[in-house]
Amino acid sequence: MHYRTLGHSGLKLSVIGLGSWLTFGNTVDQSATRECVRIAYENGVTFFDTASTYSKGKAEEVLGPILAELPREQIVIGTKLFWPTGDTPNERGLSRKHIRDEVYKSLERLKIEYIDLYQCHRYDDDTPIEETCEMMNDLVRAGTILYWGVSEWNADQIASAVNLCRVRGWSVPISNQPQYSALWRRIEERVLPTCERYGVGNVVWSPLAMGILTGKYTDASHPPAGSRAASQYREFMEDYFTQPILDAVGELKPLAQEAGVSLAQLALAWTLREPAITSAIVGATNPSHVRDNVVAGDLHLDPAIFAEMDRILEPVSPHEPYTA
């Protein structure tokens, strides 16, 4: 496993991180979750990502006692806030009040004394950015969180937050968590260059495009029983689950065979080819997924293979993101 520094900070993350959206506290039971975390850690994964709204807080609740079994000083725990956690007006967004309420709820659910990386899950148009940035700075100064970052903010929003914090002498955001994969590359034009300019690292989600890039799907009309595409979560895959995309992914199999890797490993290595990416966050519903994915954290593949991937996938790549 390789490790990269997150933005202009001293924090180092494993290039493969383990996430929990739609899995832990939801479709994966506690025993399997513990095994996934154990195998990830034993193979060098030190970055574990979750959010206050994943499975309505259950992801944090399940992960808390499991992560407590690992050496706290060796792991990085990231969580996020923004989405509604209740029905009243102040139980959402990035106001000082909502941040204050949610950070302590996350600490309690995760059974930890501080959060390594606290992330603003989306940009809040209803709250002044000064209020959000100042509150994050206050939490850093109090030791409640060590670093803070954002998720799915655009280039201008990221630049605005960093510049404001610099001027005010506040703790600056060091990370961004955008969607990024060989099938969704919209951050390459402006977000990645802006992040590099302002010292913001990227910890990307859905690097396997909701499992499409693993090659397990071949027929858009008949997804395998028990798969995400055959479940209620199919809606999150609509941008990707088309026959032209599945056929194109199938054309990647000879490339993976040539490189001696699985399709999932190839897709993760493609993501990590970009130096602006600090870590690729993967999900797992069973330990075998973890074992396969972590291998990508130590791969060095011929750039020509990535160029051929781009040639195959570019004509069918979707042009609009889905929402997480």
What's the end-to-end separation, in Å? 27 Å
CATH topology: TIM Barrel
Gross CATH architecture: Alpha-Beta Barrel
Counted beta strands: 10
What is the CATH superfamily? NADP-dependent oxidoreductase domain
* Count of DSSP-assigned helices: 11
Question: From the structure provided, what is the oligomeric state, counting identical versus distinct chains?
Answer: single chain
Identify the overall geometry: globular
When the domains are counted, the total is: 1
How are the strands of the biggest sheet laid out side by side? 3-10-9-8-7-6-5-4
> Under the CATH scheme, which class?
Alpha Beta
Query: Mean pLDDT across all residues, rounded?
Result: 94
- Report the sheet with the most strands, covering strand number, pairing sense and barrel closure: 8 strands, parallel
Give the topology string: H per helix, E per strand. Answer: EEEHEHEHEHEHEHEHHHEHH
Radius of gyration: 19 Å
* Helical residue percent band: 25-40%
What does this structure look like?
The chain has 324 residues and is of the alpha/beta class. It has a single domain (3-207, 271-302), classed as NADP-dependent oxidoreductase domain (TIM Barrel). It has eleven helices and ten strands. It has helices at 30-42, 58-67, 96-110, 129-142, 155-168, 191-198, 243-250, 253-259, 263-272, 287-294, 303-313; strands at 3-5, 12-14, 16-18, 47-49, 76-81, 115-120, 145-150, 175-176, 201-205, 277-282. An eight-stranded parallel β-sheet has the order 3-10-9-8-7-6-5-4, covered by helices on one side. The chain is globular, with a radius of gyration of 19 Å.
